[in-house]
Amino acid sequence: MKQQSRQRLFIVIAIVLGVGAATWLVFSAIEDNMRYFVSPSEIQAGLTPTDHALRVGGLVVTGSVQRPEGDEGLTVRFELTDNAQRVPVVYTGILPDLFREGQGIVATGRLRPDGVFAASEVLAKHDENYMPREVQEALDEAEDAASVGDAMRKSAGGSL
User: Can you tell me whether residue 98 is helix, strand or coil?
Assistant: First the structure.
């Protein structure tokens, strides 16, 4: 009987360790793939995590798209805005066909220490009526904040 109880104990311990290892692997994979959505205003305010992959959304600022010479056209620099703040973005790769100035996009990547967002992926909206929910919410919040600031300046007699 002692031998049987030891075998059961060993089996129970093996099952618990197996379930624990599987759970740890699942949560590690989820954490590695988690990307926080942020707006240019949140980046400029320093509210973004620096050790995680991020998704930043906004509109490509008109006149900001630059393609440095000597890089075979694969590196593109541009600015994103939520109509309140701007963030510089650098991307190396092939841009979507729908990418253009004034376009709503979502870029995935990491924020560099110099404040430039290094994008590893750029997604453009599909048609003129579509905008990702997160981008639309960020634009609406920035617009609301700008209108509150304008109202405060007017009420203070323009001294702000």
Answer: coil
Closest to 110 in 3D by CA, of 50, 58, 60: 50
Residue ranges covered by each domain of the chain: 1-33, 35-155
Nearest to 57 by CA among 45, 46, 43, 67: 43
Domain at 35-155, CATH homologous superfamily: Nucleic acid-binding proteins (2.40.50.140)
pLDDT tens figures, 113-154: 888 999 999 998 765 555 667 777 777 777 776 665 555 555
Closest to 92 measured CA to CA, from 125, 63, 127, 116: 116
First to last CA, the chain: 85
Query: In sequence order, what are the residues at sequence separation of 6 or more whose Cβ sits closer than 8 angstroms to the Cβ of residue 116?
Result: 88, 89, 90
Q: What is the pTM of this model?
A: 0.61
